[in-house]
Specification:
By secondary structure, the chain is of the alpha/beta class. The protein has a single domain, classed as Alpha-Beta Barrel (TIM Barrel), CATH 3.20.20.70. An eight-stranded parallel β-barrel has the order 1-2-3-4-5-6-7-8, surrounded by eight helices. Helix 8 links the parallel strand 6 and strand 7.
């Protein structure tokens, strides 16, 4: 797989707390130049970024981020607000406590509610694999499928670990038809990116791949 093909699967991401508009604008410029799948940015910059890129790259943002333990109504409002501001894709964080309490119906209904709020826009569901047991990961494959979400996503990148190959293998085995996989967090090389894609990931949440490409071009970052 060549570099351009890999970049088409990258959600070029900047979600750090101190991210400035100048840094977000650079992420947008990179996304346009390298034709990434999207740029994934904080909700407060969605409107400005959407107006800036003028449809040249998809705008992705995060909901209930990074802990996921807001109320469903709060997440629903965040989602509708993001879409009104121009978001094309939504990455939501599940309520991990509900999952561990086996409140499966509540977890599934929350995902369903946000998918309804998204309409025809893409919804990715972050389950924070580093905090889950294998049984919980498999259960989330079922719930994400049942709720009609578009993607299951490994990680926020703000917890104790990111994507690992074994989790992508597990997802590929257990997600239902039509559900895609996003690996995020800790993807630090082209070799890693290519292996995640080969194992079944369709999207990669990272900024490092574009940084590698820019460094190789001698552009710096």
């Amino acid at each position: 797989m060549n570099v351009n093909e890999i970049l088409k699967h990258v959600d070029h991401t900047l979600l750090l707390q101190g991210a400035t508009w100048e840094e977000i604008r650079q992420i947008c410029d990179d996304g346009i130049k390298y034709q990434t799948a999207s740029v994934c940015i904080p909700p407060c910059y969605v409107k400005q970024a959407s107006e800036y890129v003028q449809g040249k790259v998809a705008i992705c943002t995060v909901i209930g981020f990074p802990n996921g333990n807001m109320t469903t109504k709060t997440k629903e409002f965040e989602t509708k607000d993001a879409i009104e501001n121009g978001a094309d894709e939504i990455d939501m964080v599940i309520n991990i406590g509900w999952l561990k309490d086996r409140k499966y119906q509540d977890v599934e209904q929350e995902i369903r509610t946000l998918k309804e709020a998204c309409g025809d826009r893409i919804l990715k569901v972050i389950i924070e694999t580093c905090l889950l047991t294998e049984e919980e990961k498999i259960k989330m494959c079922e719930l994400v499928t049942n709720a009609g979400a578009d993607y299951i996503k490994t990680s926020t990148g703000f917890s104790t670990g990111g994507a690992i190959f074994d989790d992508i293998r597990l997802f590929a085995k257990h997600v239902g038809e039509g559900v895609k996989i996003k690996a995020a967090g800790g993807i630090s090389s082209m070799d890693d990116a290519e292996k995640f894609l080969a194992l079944g990931a369709d999207r990669l949440g990272t900024s490092r791949i574009v940084k590698i490409v820019k460094k190789e071009e001698g552009a710096g970052y």
